[in-house]
Amino acid sequence: MSTPIPKSHKRVVAIAKRAPLELHTVPTKAPEANEVLVRVSYAASSPLNLHVADGNLLGGLPNVGWNGAFAGSVAALGPETQTGLKIGDPVFGFTWRDNKEKSGQEYLTAPETMMGRIPDGADERAYATVPDSFVTAWHTLRTELGMKLPWPKPDGWKPRNVDTPVLVWGASSSVGWFALPLLKWAGYTNVVATAGMKHHERLKQLGATKAFDYRDGDVVEKLRDAAGPPGFRYFVDCIGSLEGSVRPIAQIAGPGSTIAIMLPVIVRTATETVEPIYSMDVKDPEIHVDWKDGSNPVGVRTHFYTKDEFAANNLQPVVMPALLQSGDIEPASYRIMEGKDMLERAEKALSLFRSGAVSGERLIWSTS
User: Fold this and answer.
1) What is the 3 state secondary structure string of 49-114?
2) Pairwise CA distance, residues 309 & 259, whole Å
3) Phi, psi of 76 (to 5 degrees)
4) What percent of the chain has pLDDT over 70?
5) 315, exposed or middle or buried, with CB in 10 Å at 0-12, 13-18, 19+?
6) What is d(CA 290, CA 276) in angstroms, rounded to the nearest whole number?
7) Are strands 68-77 and 90-95 parallel, antiparallel or unpaired?
8) CA 331 to CA 338: how far, in whole Å?
């Protein structure tokens, strides 16, 4: 049974670089053809929110809604929807293209192909940790690296280069959390991870065959030894930090390798007192990365996943729920942000990212 659509609702908005966030009252957009109106229960903050708020990444300010992953319930359906969603169904997804789709608000309106159904009785807070990071991991492996992720996966299927060395740098990040089990599900058997020592055992359960501490002064040499000749073929840089990941990887990546780097490249990290510097070009001569001849660094823009017709139509409504249901992937650990309203909760999440206090977990907050 449908409920009346409110004429307006609250939305968290970034208005200027490093300025306090604001809570705006905005019109609620009724769903059009193939769209769904979602009553958002929980939103997930990510480093991208910090990049926008502190660095005006991609120049969207002012009045940028808080985007990312969400969990909620179907409040209304537009005409011609085809995914089988019904009023009241619990859903989760990743939406971003304009403010009506952004997750940091009480209601969002987005295409039905940008969300999937949550099983009845499941923890919707946990499901809010999945969509943006899962989509990024899938897009990185399949599109940017050209690795085989067949869907549906044939019984007994294995990739041709099953034992090719793969390095996932920053594997305890939210993207790494899904990249490792996706590689395991797809049959890749030689996956090396870097992360803080406390995460190593969990990463091995997720699919890493070896794990190294990125803080180790000899980590570059240890990783070269772990790969053996001819070295790593594929790299996933989940961090995109110039000093923390990009330059160390450049010392390891040899001819014939492809390095997928999460954008932006963080040239200078944001703090409470320092404004960040970013680059959207992994080959930018001004950031001075000594890539070896024959290596192929590429920048990952998750939003481009919709250029793949299969992914645009199936990744969130079909593949993501199915892999969760089968147990091949699982929600990430999360921390709930407390506060008097969603503005305060979003600000707390932003401050934690700015202080570097987030490791191995997602930051989730209620929109109520």
Assistant:
1) HHHHHHHCHHHCCCCEECCEEEEEEEEEECCCCCCCCCCCCEEEEEECCCHHHCCCECEEEEEHHH
2) 24
3) -160, 155
4) 99
5) buried
6) 22
7) antiparallel
8) 20
Does pTM surpass 0.85? Answer: yes
How large is the average pLDDT for residues 262-273?
Answer: 95
pLDDT digits (tens, 9 = 90+) for 107-144: 999 999 999 999 999 999 999 999 999 999 999 999 99
Residue 279: which region, alpha, beta or left (left: phi > 0; alpha: psi -120 to 50)? beta
Q: Which two tokens stand for residue 132?
A: 């943006």
What letters, b where the CB count within 10 A reaches 16 and e where it falls short, cover 94-128?
bbbeebbbbbbbbbbbbbbbbbbbbeeebebbbbb
pLDDT greater than 80 at residue 3: no
Q: How confident is the model at residue 2 (pLDDT cuts 50, 70, 90)?
A: low
Could you tell me the two tokens for 106? Answer: 């009480």
**Amino acid at site 218:** D
Question: How much is the pLDDT for 59?
Answer: 83
Domains of the chain: 8-130+331-366 (3.90.180.10), 134-303 (3.40.50.720)
Query: Which whole-number Å values give the CA distances from 195 to 10, 21, 129, 202, 244, in the listed order?
Result: 38, 32, 19, 11, 11
Query: What percent of the chain has a predicted confidence (pLDDT) above 90?
Result: 95
| Whether the predicted pLDDT of 190 surpasses 90 | yes
Strand partners, 364: 44, 336
Other beta carbons within 10 Å of 26: 17
Could you give the CA distance from residue 348 to residue 363 in angstroms, rounded to a whole number?
A: 9
Mean pLDDT across the stretch 12-25?
96
Contact 274, 255 (CB under 8 A): no
- At 305 the pLDDT is 98
If we measure between CA atoms, which residue out of 344, 342, 301 comes closest to residue 9? Answer: 342
- Sequence-distant (≥ 6) Cβ neighbours of residue 172 within 8 angstroms: 195, 196, 199, 202, 203, 359, 360
Cα 63 vs. chain centroid, distance in angstroms? Answer: 22
Q: Which residue's structure tokens are 């939305």?
A: 11
Judged against a pLDDT cut of 90, whether residue 58 lies above it is answered with no
